[in-house]
Amino acid sequence: MKAGVLAVQGDVSEHAAAIRRAATAHGESAEVVEIRESGLLPECDVLLCPGGESTTISRLIRREGIAEEIREHVAADKPVLATCAGLIVLSADAKDDRVETLGLIDATVDRNAFGRQADSFEAPLAVDGLADPFHAVFIRAPLIDAVGDGVEVLASWEDRPVLVRDGPILGCSFHPELTDDPRIHDLAFFPEVAATV
Amino acid sequence: MADATDLEELKRGTELVKRGFARMQKGGVIMDVVTREQARIAEDAGAVAVMALEAVPADIRKRGGVARMPDPTNVTEIIDEVSIPVMGKSRIGHRKEAEILESLGVDMIDESEVLTPADDEYHIDKREFTAPFVCGARNLPEALRRINEGAAMIRTKGEAGTGDVNQAVKHQRTMQRQIREIAGLEHTEREKWAREHGAPRELVHETADAGRLPVVNFAAGGIATPADAALMMYYGCDGIFVGSGIFGAENPSEMGTAIVEAVTNWDDADELAEIARGVGKGMQGQSTDSIPDEERLQGRGV
User: Fold this and answer.
1) So where does D-ribose 5-phosphate get bound (chain B) (predicted)?
2) How many CB atoms lie within 10 A of CB A131?
3) What is the tens place of the pLDDT at every residue in A164-184?
4) What mean pLDDT comes out for the span B132-159?
5) For residue B248, which of A16, A173, B184, B283 is within the disulfide window of CB 3.0 to 4.6 Å?
6) Substitution target from A8, A34, A56, A97 for chain B, most B beta carbons within 10 A
7) Quick check: is B26 catalytic?
8) Is the CB of B85 less than 8 angstroms away from the CB of A137?
9) Chain A contacts of B105, Cβ < 8 Å?
10) Residue A54 marked ligand-binding
11) CATH ID of A2-194, from 3.30.70.100, 3.40.50.620, 3.60.15.10, 3.40.50.880
């Protein structure tokens, strides 16, 4: 598969390594394309939107003309995994005029809801569809406030959603790319495999 | 819905969480700010974080005297002003300044040679903090010593406050050359290299095996233009700190935006030309050559 990693800012190489690992685990290979300009994403089968700073990322994807291509990717029903800042940028509303969201995930997001870096943490997280908990790393993480009818909540932290699916998009407020466990990537890109683990 | 998650296994301030925070800064620009007004300009320009300090390095140089951590009032105002992470500078070896910054809620502490060192021999034991630290380094052994003390992020020292990128280039190239050097050595040769360079041996092996530092490595010290920032990305840095280069420029907002865009477009000269066009004068600066060794900041805290 050709995997686009949004690369204007954030933990791009971690996402590139994670999708390669996940693909290899299922006997496929992922050719990673770092997307810093327009014209590359239309060639990609899947998209990964990394963590980083949502203010910076939302500004740069517009400047580089990538925002519209992300909309087209989703409209074509191609899979997306959006983590942390990626989730914020793709959401319907981040309740903050410093971030212009794309409105692709029917959910409102509370930026940095967990607080500052001192409140960042790692913990096992129960996820629907996974037999064992997923070790989740939350870094100045957002929480999902409200979701639309078509949005499926796959995991919550203290009753607030942290992993949701809206059509082809899996939105995640933690960082599955920082650990070796490929199961969240499986849920996004290899659903037939994920169902069996 | 799956079962409730086990709160008792929640861990804060781990190496993964600290280094992970630094990873989220990659490909971004962290800007020095002194006031909340500057912090606002930096966030609007697209900074991934701001660094709170008492005065920008160029002014510290001019003014002389002892440079210390920023006033807590300023730090709190800056934290209230922006939604992006706020970092703060403490003196080398000044554990109490670092504790105060952590208590104020800064997201990362820079144990920085730009301030007057509080301890000539020892750095802070950074492993004991929940807050992650970034430290400066001129070469690989220095970087690995800081990582061994718990630094979650490294930056080149460069020569702060000069607007002269020369020393940042030198430090980054030295670091990269030394990583290539140890990668080419076999086990016993790496052990000897570690001994001779005063570098923690386990980290020497880890770096040699991975072909890169185990933590994020930014460039800092003398970066003043979009082209400077692009040059440091070309030399393999993960991102950029800009100190005096933003608010010492003729138009800080334009310069900040241009440097942010240059870091994303570092490998596209046509884009860089557009980005640099009309950005206004950079900080005046001072060539590192003209600064005597004893006045250079980079020799502090090795």
Assistant:
1) 32, 161, 222, 243-244
2) 9
3) 999 999 999 999 999 999 999
4) 98
5) B283
6) A56
7) no
8) no
9) 116, 118
10) yes
11) 3.40.50.880
